[in-house]
């Protein structure tokens, strides 16, 4: 059989932020679009810190040649018999995973995504507890799946989505209790902390949707995606003195399994778990810490605590601008829907 000509092939190239890990993989154009799940399961959230776990699956049978990999610092973390995750030991980015019969590439480290290359769908939506990102991407195919029910992988029904919406309406109306803790942890448990509700931020949305909730947005910028491995990184900001280590002590950045990477030396520090690879904090301004939204131990959007909003500031940096626009528009629409009635 003749090998495909250069015009019939597509090469996906990628590197993590610190460039310790670089790879490229080539498939025939006939393999497109490649399956690109956005996993909403609790494991993916806690092992990455990302609530939008975007990967692309390249079946081994579709690879034209072995991938070209220059990986000088990959840390492995196995979350099941069938999946070994690999993240950069220096910058923390999830890079690619080893699965039976496939390469699973984290889309945030890709150099480009062309229109039509990926076929995106949401999986394990049931595990999110609140519909997760399916709330913002209603036109995408969404599948249930839950860590407890291996057979329940059918499509998420309209009735289920209506249920998620009515839950969200109640959370939107509810005031923030004056006391309480938002627990956060990584998958391996080496990073465990909580956010206190004792000093709520007076952060009234222009929509009037919620008060005293912490603003949470997806950042599409290249640094966030190459440091996380995922295209859109959900962050919420918290005053540093509202964050406590699990034992109640003040937060410190050399505790537990935290590792620090300076993505802009002397200006921006990012922490991740050195064991499981969860991305955890972003620090630039003194006294304020951004926290990865996927670490919350509540339902995935944590709407009792967080107010998700669209943020266009870095839109032009998005790897896949139409995808970023869809999710931003989805957030705006969801917020309007849960505010009405
Ligand atoms: Zn790296
Ligand atoms: Zn998952
Ligand atoms: Zn960990």
TrEMBL record:
Protein's UniProt keywords contain Lyase: yes
InterPro entries tied to this protein: CENP-V/GFA, Mss4-like_sf
SUPFAM superfamilies documented for this protein: Mss4-like
Keyword Hydrolase assigned: no
Ranges where the CENP-V/GFA domain occurs: 12-137, 178-309
An annotated Gene Ontology molecular function: metal ion binding
Keywords: Lyase, Metal-binding, Zinc
PANTHER family: CENP-V_GFA DOMAIN-CONTAINING PROTEIN-RELATED, GFA DOMAIN-CONTAINING PROTEIN
Family: Belongs to the Gfa family.
Protein name: CENP-V/GFA domain-containing protein
Organism name: Drechslerella stenobrocha 248
């Amino acid at each position: 059989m003749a090998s495909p000509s250069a015009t019939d092939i597509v090469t996906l190239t990628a590197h993590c932020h610190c460039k310790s890990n670089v790879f490229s993989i080539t498939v025939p154009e006939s393999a497109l679009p490649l399956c690109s799940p956005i996993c909403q399961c609790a494991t993916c959230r806690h092992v990455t810190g990302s609530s939008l776990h975007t990967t692309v699956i390249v079946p081994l049978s579709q690879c034209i040649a072995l991938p070209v990999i220059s990986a000088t610092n990959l840390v492995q973390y196995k979350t099941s018999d069938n999946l070994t995750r690999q993240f950069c030991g220096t910058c923390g980015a999830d890079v690619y995973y080893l699965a039976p019969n496939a390469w699973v590439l984290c889309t945030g480290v890709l150099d480009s995504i062309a229109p039509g290359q990926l076929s995106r769908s949401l999986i394990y939506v049931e595990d999110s507890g609140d519909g997760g990102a399916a709330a913002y991407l209603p036109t995408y195919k969404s599948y249930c799946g839950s860590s407890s029910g291996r057979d329940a992988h059918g499509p998420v029904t309209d009735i289920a989505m209506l249920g998620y919406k009515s839950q969200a309406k109640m959370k939107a109306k509810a005031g923030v209790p004056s006391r309480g803790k938002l627990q956060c942890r990584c998958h391996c448990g080496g990073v465990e902390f909580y956010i206190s509700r004792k000093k709520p931020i007076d952060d009234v949305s222009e929509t009037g949707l919620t008060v005293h909730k912490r603003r949470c947005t997806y950042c599409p910028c290249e640094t966030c995606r190459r440091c996380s491995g995922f295209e859109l990184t959900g962050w919420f900001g918290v005053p540093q003195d509202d964050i406590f280590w699990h034992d109640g002590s003040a937060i410190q950045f050399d505790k537990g399994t935290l590792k620090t990477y300076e993505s802009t030396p002397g200006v921006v520090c990012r922490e991740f778990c050195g064991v499981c690879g969860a991305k955890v904090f972003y620090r630039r301004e003194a006294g304020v810490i951004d926290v990865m939204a996927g670490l919350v131990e509540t339902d995935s959007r944590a709407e009792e605590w967080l107010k998700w909003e669209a943020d266009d500031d870095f839109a032009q940096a998005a790897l896949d601008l139409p995808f970023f626009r869809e999710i931003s528009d989805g957030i705006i629409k969801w917020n309007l829907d849960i505010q009405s009635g």
